Structures are given as C-alpha cells and as structure tokens.
Amino acid sequence: MQRDMGKGRDALVVCSDKSLGIGITIWDVDTGDHLLHIPTCASPSHGLLCLRKQFLVASQIHRQGSVGGGAIFIWALNKPQLPLRSYPVEAIVPLSCTKDGIYLAGGALSGNAYLWEIASGRLLKTWHAHDKSLNCLLFSNDDSLLISGSNDGMICVWSVISLLDTGDSGSLPSLLHYSSEHRSSVTGLLNTSGSSSSVLVSSSLDGTCKVWDFVSGRLIQTQVYPVAITAIVLDPGEQLLFCGSVDGRIFVNRLDIGLLEDPFFVAQAQPVVLKEHNGAITALAFSESGLISASEDCTICMWDVVNWVIIRKFSHRKGAVTNMTVIPQSSLLSVSNRQRVSNQLHVSMLDKYPQPINSSKGKITLPSSCCSLKEKQIYLDFRSTDSLNQHISDFQKDGTPAAMQMKVETCIENRIWASRMTKHVMEMNKHLQSRLLDLMQCRLLWPTEIDTPSSRKRKMLKIESPLLQGEEEPQSST
User: Fold this and answer.
1) Which regions does the record annotate with the repeat WD (predicted)?
2) Are 335 and 106 in contact (CB under 8 A)?
3) Whole-prediction pTM
C-alpha cells in the first residue's frame, strides 16, 4: 500500500449507507489501484469528512429496525483498523468540522444540532436548529459561522461565538439570519474561499441552486434546472459550478456573480451537460486530476474538465456511494514513515451529554446508568495512547448486533430518566417559586410582625405602656 504513495498523490475515499459490513474503500486516484479497505461503516450523505488530513470521521445510522441507533466513528489514517466509537444521544446525519480541527458539528434527524470539542470530546452545545431533519452543515472559511440546511428547505446561519458560550448550557445560540427561498430539501452547501469569501451556494431538490451573501443573508442569484439537484461542487478556481442531478446528469455553469444586486435574477445561459451515470448523482469532488462523480448506479467517474471526457472509472459493486472525499495518500503512511509534526491532533470519545465545565480536561467517567459493572470501573485519560487503544479494543469486542441493540435500549432508558429528572426539577422550581411568593406576600401584609429583636422590644413596650402612663397597678387584698 505504501510503495507508491509519493508526495502530492491523491487518494479517493468512498463509503455507502447500505450496510455496516461494506465499510470504506480507498483507491489511488491516478492509477485506480485499491489501497485500503476499512471495515464497519455505513454513513449517510454528508456524514463523512477528513479531519486535518489525519483522521476520518463518519456518522453511522443503523437500519436494523432501530430509529435511535447511531454512532460517530473516528479512524486514525495512519492506523485505521480500530476506530474510536462514540454514541450520541440520537442518530447524527451530517457532519462538519472547523478548518483547524478543533470543533465538530453534527445534525440529527430530529432537527437538533450538536457541537463538540474534538480534543476533549466535550459536548459544548445542543440546540433545536430546524423543525425537520438536518441534511447539510458547513463552517465558513474563517470558522466564525455555522450554516445548516434542512429537509424543510430552510437555511440558517449561526454565530460560532454564541455556540461556544458554555456559561448557560440551555441558552439558545445567536441566529444571524435564515432563508426559506428553497421549496424543498437542501442537498448541498458550498462556501467560496477567494476574495468573496462570504459567498454561499446552496442546492435543493426543487431544481435550483442559489447564491447568497451569507453574512447579510442577501440572495444574489438563482440558477434553475429541469430536475432536482442532489450534489454540488466548485472547481478549484471557483469559476465553474458543477451540479449533479437526480437523473444522473451533471450541469456545468459559470459562477459569474459579478456585481449583481437583483435578488430575482435567474441565470439563463445554457450549461454544459455531462452524461454517463444511469442513477442519481450522490456526491461530487475535485482532485488534482479532475472532477470525480459518484452515483447510485455504483460507479465513480473521473472527468477531464477541459475536454469533458471520462479519464477513469471505478466500480463500487458493494453499493451506491453516499459519501466521497479526496485525501493525500501521504496521510495513510504510518507516523514512523513520515515526518512527525508538532501540531499532531488529539481526539477523544465524544460526550453523550454535556459535562460540568470544571470537569477534568481530557478525561471522562462513563455514566453509571448506561454502563455495565465492568465499564463503570473504567476511567480513561484519552491523551494516553495505551488507554485509548485498550478502550477501542473493548468497543471492538462489543460491536455485535446484540451489543448495539443493548446500547440503543440503554440510550432510550437514559432519555426517559433525563425526562423524569427534568420534570422533577421543574416541580421543585415551581414549589420554590410558590414559597418565595408566599414569603413576599407575608412581608408586604405584615411588615411589623416579623420576629426580630426590635419587634420583640416594641411588643414589650406596648404591654408595659399602662404603667408608663402613670396608671396604678391594682393592689391585691391580703
């Protein structure tokens, strides 16, 4: 695998959502050679990403009759056979990370969104972002904004600063603005990285691609297509927009936003159309060699974007590709075979629930309500390589269908327990508020009857007042 991994060579990473057994396949982009297979992965669309060219992160959805079963797996690319497994409180679909690899965002089928700190695994924020399931998540190029697209056609822009405000875990993040211009599910989000870094491109099943200034929320341009758009990508020069459709066609339009100010402007130019796939386009990506497209027909094509011809074809016979990303082949080399870097990224198991702010950094105690007696005795420092490998090995042994079902059941039990505790806390707050109102009312009605030393003295003076006024005390007869 390592013999031809020269500097500058790309590797193509693909996975399906059909079965955990299919896993991740990695090819050499230039030669088509099979480089590596990573078992146990079934990731939904937008659920796979490469973290700082050091880790692969994939959300998992288990379809064996379980709506609550889901996980996030993290593989070290230099040793990818044993993933670090995390089990969020609900299934996560899209993932996105900041450019520096510090934060990871995930979106759920319920419309909830989550933000983790990757090094410590701490869950920083969870909030209800959309009314329907999240399909796409994207951090802006400066990592100051998080953009979310949903099955309800909504696009929301959130301030990352407000997401990092952990002073009040129940506080809502700052929603800068939102858009409901799309009439169907949002299928893709892109951010330009050039001089106009505030430009956002979105695609939808309504057959449109829209160009936004996402800082102000202003719609700049709308491109209309005859069919639903399922995937989008920009060329490295950010001049051409490639739009994959539900019928297998790829439309190529020039992204010429210029100084357009009319939000109702609709692009009329006839795009170039690439046609080779027989199923819906599921993913688009660019490598140094050209455009790469994946389809439900289980094929992956590499295109020469100058002559508009196919350079190479890959066959993924194990199922339709739902996720695709391009990484440097050098990332697959072991640490001993490549130059060690000082900014090596550390990852930890992601928390299921928010942890106290003053908890030990980089450490986690497994919740007693959802762990076996053996797991309760485990206390891990995730910055230790030996303990991390031991933890990964334990999860690998438990990775059976029965174990997964048990984890789902305990997850449901934890949610029921959390609901009961929430109800109990609300009742306690209501009782305390009632007591406080009663005390305030008593103080307003009888302000002089409060039992204090001065009030007792006044009472004694009232009792002795007849004597002080000169009245004689009755003499008892002898």
Assistant:
1) 127-160, 179-222, 274-305
2) no
3) 0.70
Residue 420, token pair as written in the block? 């009961």
Per-residue pLDDT of the chain (478 residues; tens, 9 = 90+): 344 455 568 999 999 988 888 889 999 998 989 999 998 888 999 999 999 899 999 999 765 444 446 899 999 988 877 899 999 999 999 999 999 899 999 999 999 999 999 999 999 999 999 999 999 999 998 898 999 999 999 999 999 998 987 665 556 788 888 888 999 999 999 988 765 568 899 999 999 999 998 778 889 889 999 999 999 999 998 889 999 999 999 999 988 765 444 544 555 457 789 999 999 999 999 998 899 999 999 999 999 988 889 999 998 878 889 999 999 998 887 544 444 444 577 899 999 888 765 544 433 333 333 333 333 333 333 333 343 444 444 444 445 444 555 555 556 656 666 666 666 666 666 666 666 776 666 666 554 444 444 555 554 544 444 434 444 444 444 3
Residues in the chain, overall count = 478
CATH number of 10-333: 2.130.10.10
Q: Which two tokens stand for residue 29?
A: 């982009």
Strand partners, 233: 242
Hey, is 341 helix, strand or coil?
coil
- In DSSP terms, 191 is beta-bridged to 200
Angstrom distance (rounded) from CA 275 to CA 16: 22
Which residues 6+ apart lie within 8 Å of 372 measured at CB? none
Q: What is the DSSP string of 117-162?
A: ETTT--EEEEEE--SS-EEEEEE-TTSSEEEEEETTS-EEEEEHHH
Domain regions of the chain by residue span: 10-333
Burial of 292 from C-beta contacts in 10 A (0-12 / 13-18 / 19+): buried
